[in-house]
Write a structure and sequence with these properties.
Order of helices and strands: HHHHEHEHEHEHHEHEEEHEEH
Number of helices: 12
Strand content: 5-15%
Number of domains: 1
Structural class: alpha/beta
Distance between the termini: 44 Å
């Protein structure tokens, strides 16, 4: 049975025009996206009767409601410096005041620093199995280019309890299509209907520039110039967040980001800590 919460989170019908524009622009394969969706769906069914999809969705919803402040961590070049300065000024316990949601490889930094990870949103190409097993929730995305990673993480997916699967094509019974394109903007799309007027939403390491952070991929050792293809992806992510802005009822605040926009609140680290 499809739950009301799953219906609430699914955004495919509203987002599909964006989806087809993206796959046509990047020459992605719709058929491969469907193949990835079906593979992840089969894996989740193999988890057996003890894994209840609706129960996990409600657990995640309740967890998001447990605190009023949420930090979303991207993999941009400002990520490491921002986190290090906050740790230096406020200490590790400061981050316990927040729900900490990481986009893919940013979870590596949080694990290295000892910051609790509430959820990783990932297509699995920027994390190790250590991060996967370290989070409270994993929201795993299936698309045509990451089938090999779904297979690599097969044992972890089967074993890990609090897992939610997402797709970018038509959702089926045990997968959600929340909308979004990159791991970072997909977090905002997923939260779209879970946020209350009391929530505060802060973004760290979301820069959308021409430099990518070293946590963007496992084989990157330092911040570096982004490829033209990566810049195009980040441009889409920026446009999608702008498009989503009016569908999220609270302000989106960027912390120490290279992305400055009149459409969002932009704070320095010092201004953020004064709050």
């Amino acid at each position: 049975m499809v739950s009301k919460l799953k219906d609430q989170l699914d955004f495919y019908n509203d987002f599909k025009d964006w989806y087809f524009q993206i796959i046509n622009d990047f020459k992605f394969s719709y058929q491969k996206d469907c193949e990835a969706r079906d593979y992840l769906s089969r894996l989740l069914f193999k988890k057996g009767q003890t894994w209840k999809f609706n129960r996990i969705l409600n657990l995640f919803k309740n967890h998001i409601s447990s605190k009023q402040a949420i930090i979303i961590y991207g993999c941009g070049p400002s990520l490491e410096k921002t986190v290090d300065i906050i740790l230096e000024k406020e200490g590790l316990n400061f981050f316990d005041n927040f729900i900490n949601l990481t986009a893919d490889g940013s979870s590596i930094l949080l694990r290295e620093k000892g910051i609790k990870i509430d959820a990783i949103f990932t297509d699995l190409d920027g994390i190790t199995k250590d991060e996967f097993c370290n989070a409270l929730f994993n929201i795993v995305h299936a698309h045509g280019d990451n089938i090999k990673y779904l297979k690599f993480f097969k044992k972890e997916i089967l074993k890990f309890e609090n897992i939610i699967g997402t797709t970018q094509v038509e959702p089926i019974s045990n997968l959600i299509n929340p909308g979004g394109f990159t791991d970072g903007d997909r977090i905002l799309f997923f939260l779209r209907t879970l946020l209350s007027s009391l929530h505060k939403l802060y973004l760290i390491g979301m820069d959308f520039g021409t430099i990518i952070g070293k946590y963007s991929k496992l084989d990157i050792k330092m911040n570096q110039e982004a490829s033209l293809n990566k810049i195009k992806k980040l441009n889409y992510a920026r446009e999608l967040i702008l498009w989503l802005k009016n569908r999220i009822k609270i302000e989106i605040t960027f912390i120490n980001s290279k992305f400055l926009s009149k459409d969002f609140i932009n704070l320095s680290i010092e201004e953020f800590l004064k709050l």
